[in-house]
Write a structure and sequence with these properties.
Elements: H1 4-21, H2 24-36, E1 48-49, E2 52-53, H3 57-69, E3 76-79, H4 86-95, E4 104-108, H5 114-122, H6 139-142, E5 147-151, H7 158-170, E6 172-173, E7 182-183, E8 187-192, H8 196-202, H9 207-213, E9 216-219, H10 229-245, E10 250-251, H11 253-261, H12 267-281, E11 285-286
Helix pairs in contact: 1-2, 10-12
Length: 299
């Protein structure tokens, strides 16, 4: 249990931080955790905002940016390592915007072959290429009035980058095989784990597109830099996995300590996969011995 003097010192720090940033309500959850000396008893008390779990200083900064940027229509570039939750941030920006209730569509630019990406985004007319058996609207038209999230934008081919830039400049798309333009009103959110500015210098990414997308940047911290969040996320994920597999699973203190000691190069996604694997072997409670040798540093 945390001693009272250290709690008082920490409270003073939190109050000072809240006064400086006008964010006392966002720090209240962190103080409650310190008082308990443990995590919240149920999901409703978990610290976080916008569907994102966390109370570390880097995540509080992300929450602040989401709150400030979401109501506007500016393009946002979300930067972060693989598995850090970039799409969750994009969804939060949409849900907190005036476009809430309108379509939110996402496309992973690295997952679609280059020759099909144009059709996925802009649509096509029947017969415009082999396999085009019917007209297709495409994401820009389908998301009209809402938000389009382009994940892994750094993997978009240069030819497509030029076409995307034109859409952003003109506010209209031309489906593959059509000679008619379609007006669209779509907010663009993009994400990448790459250094786009460095790619611009080598010619791998268009500089004009970069500045169109990067009106505001939200940099997601890697899990290893989110002090205290591994423990909170683990408890949350274990409850979610319990519901998924249909049996109650807990996690003990030794397992939580081991999870906190790992660097999590795959971030939250890796943590979730590790807990899901451990839950298969656990007999009621995930223990240290249920964790993989890699996470325990044994290989």
């Amino acid at each position: 249990m945390t001693d009272s003097s250290s709690l008082e010192d920490r409270l003073a720090e939190l109050v000072a931080e809240a006064r400086e940033n006008d964010a006392l309500d966002r720090l209240r959850a962190r103080w409650q955790i310190l008082l308990r000396g443990s995590e919240p008893a149920d999901d409703s008390e978990l610290p976080g905002r916008f569907g994102l779990i966390g109370a570390s200083a880097p995540m509080l900064a992300v929450f602040e940016l989401i709150e400030r940027v979401a109501p506007s229509d500016v393009s946002v570039l979300i930067r972060g390592e693989t598995g850090s939750g970039k799409e969750l941030v994009a969804k939060a920006l949409h849900e907190q915007s005036r476009r809430k209730g309108k379509p939110f569509l996402a496309e992973n630019c690295a997952a679609v072959p280059a020759n099909l990406l144009e059709s996925e985004l802009f649509g096509h007319k029947r017969g415009s290429f082999t396999g085009a058996v019917a007209d297709r609207a495409g994401h820009f038209v389908a998301a009209d009035g809402g938000t389009l999230f382009l994940d892994e934008i750094g993997d978009m081919p240069l030819e497509m980058q030029a076409k995307l830039l034109r859409v952003l400049q003109e506010g209209e798309v031309r489906p593959v095989g059509s000679n008619k333009m379609i007006r669209v009103d779509v907010r663009i959110l993009a994400a990448t784990h790459r250094d786009l500015l460095a790619m611009c210098k080598t010619g791998a990414f268009r500089e004009d597109l970069y500045f169109r997308l990067n009106v505001v940047t939200i940099a997601l911290p890697p899990l290893r830099d989110r002090e205290g969040d591994v423990r909170t996320l683990a408890r949350f994920l274990v409850k979610s996995i319990s519901a998924e597999i249909g049996r109650e699973i807990g996690i003990d203190e030794d397992a939580l300590a081991a999870l906190e000691s790992w660097s999590w190069p795959g971030n939250v996604r890796e943590l979730e996969n590790e807990l899901r694997r451990a839950a298969v072997f656990a007999e009621g409670t995930i223990r240290r011995e249920d964790l993989s040798r890699r996470v325990l540093g044994a290989e």
